[in-house]
Each structure stands twice: as structure tokens, then as C-alpha cells.
Specification:
Number of domains: 1
Radius of gyration: 16 Å
Number of helices: 6
Strand content: 15-25%
Strand order of the largest sheet: 1-7-6-2-5-3-4
Helix content: 25-40%
Mean pLDDT: 89
Low-confidence stretches: none
């Protein structure tokens, strides 16, 4: 059973009323025909839906394993196409699962901060997302969600996709991982800065 279409439809109806999500920059980068990894900042539990309502193809989100420990919630998450990740260690199994999904032309969604931010500032970008990008050869599309509360427009800023294809002779190692993580972090911080400036104008 796939609950994703139903959940996406309900989220689209509800969120249009309560959060009014709108992509104000980079709509052209949300291409459902491309197999990519969507990476966004993470403030609220409903952030996956804010991205999902703007991408017509199903997104398979990585979610913290604790959400799957409750049988009912775990069942729902599984049937929404999400899969667990252990944030406390290098979760090789989850990385392999994400790579496999991408090889099957499924879109993957990741919140690379690893946890929700409670002070609205962008947290540290962890390396899991770029490991997956390097191993799968798929690009990352960075996004920044500017949530401003109930009945206020949630603005979404989407950046150009980042290609992590290795050059000739390059290998996946700590150096390429760190360089890729820095590249992703810079892209997301730039989107955060754009969002902050947008709010001032």
C-alpha cells in the first residue's frame, strides 16, 4: 500500500490554508523527471510535506529511526516511502538503501543537518547526503524552507542542482567527501542568506 499520493493530496489542501507554501525562487529546479537528491534545512516536522507538494513524483525521505519505533507511526512512515537512518553513527545500511533507491530512479529527500533546528539558524551539514550523491552519481538539489508560522506564507528557495560526479582518477575518500560536504554547505548557506535578504525587502 502506498499512502504517498493520498498524503500529498491532503497536505496540499491543508498547507495551502495554514502555511501557504510557495516556491519564490528556483521552481525550474524542481524537475520530477530527474532522479536527484533533495536536501533542505529542517525546522518543523512537516518540512517533508512542504517539499513534496511541489514535486509531482514521490520523494523517499530518510527519517530518524526513532520515528519507526512506534508501530503505528512506523507503519505510516514506511507506507509513505520513508526509510530510517540512525543519526548516532555512520549508518551504512541506510546509505546503501538510498543509493539503491536512486539507482531505481526514485527521488530521495534528506535533511542533512540530521535534526531539527530550534533557533532558525542553519545547523552543521553532515556528510551522509554527499556520500549518497558520490556513490550514486546523482546530483543534489539544495533548498531552503523559510517557515514563518500559521497563516503566513512559507517561502521556499531552491538552488541549482549540484553535480558530484567524480573526475577521471578521483576516488571516494575522506578528502572528496569533505570537499563535497563543503560544497553543499556553501550552497545551502547561500540560500539561507537569500531568504534573509528577501525578508528584509
Amino acid at each position: 500500500m502506498n499512502l504517498y499520493p493520498l498524503a500529498r493530496g491532503l497536505a496540499n489542501a491543508l498547507f495551502c490554508v495554514f502555511f501557504r507554501p510557495r516556491v519564490v525562487l528556483g521552481q525550474e529546479h524542481l524537475n520530477p523527471d530527474e532522479t536527484v537528491i533533495y536536501c533542505a534545512n529542517h525546522r518543523h516536522f512537516y518540512d517533508p510535506f512542504l517539499i513534496a507538494v511541489h514535486v509531482k513524483k514521490q520523494i523517499h525521505f530518510m527519517a530518524k529511526k526513532e520515528l519507526f519505533e512506534n508501530k503505528i507511526l512506523g507503519w505510516i512512515m514506511t507506507h509513505l516511502g520513508a526509510f530510517p537512518v540512525d543519526r548516532g553513527r555512520a549508518d551504512v545500511a541506510s546509505i546503501k538503501r538510498a543509493v539503491t533507491a536512486l539507482e531505481e530512479d526514485k527521488i530521495v529527500g534528506i535533511f542533512p543537518e540530521g535534526t531539527r533546528s530550534h533557533d532558525d539558524a542553519m545547523g552543521q551539514i553532515h556528510a551522509g547526503a554527499v556520500w549518497i550523491a558520490l556513490k550514486s552519481g546523482k546530483a543534489i538539489v539544495p533548498a531552503y524552507i523559510d517557515s514563518r508560522g500559521l497563516f503566513k506564507q512559507t517561502r521556499i528557495f531552491v538552488g541549482e542542482k549540484i553535480d558530484f560526479t567524480l573526475g577521471e582518477g578521483e576516488r571516494i575518500n575522506a578528502a572528496t567527501r569533505d570537499a563535497a560536504a563543503q560544497k553543499l554547505s556553501q550552497a545551502m548557506l547561500e540560500l539561507e542568506a537569500i531568504a534573509e535578504n528577501w525578508s528584509k525587502n
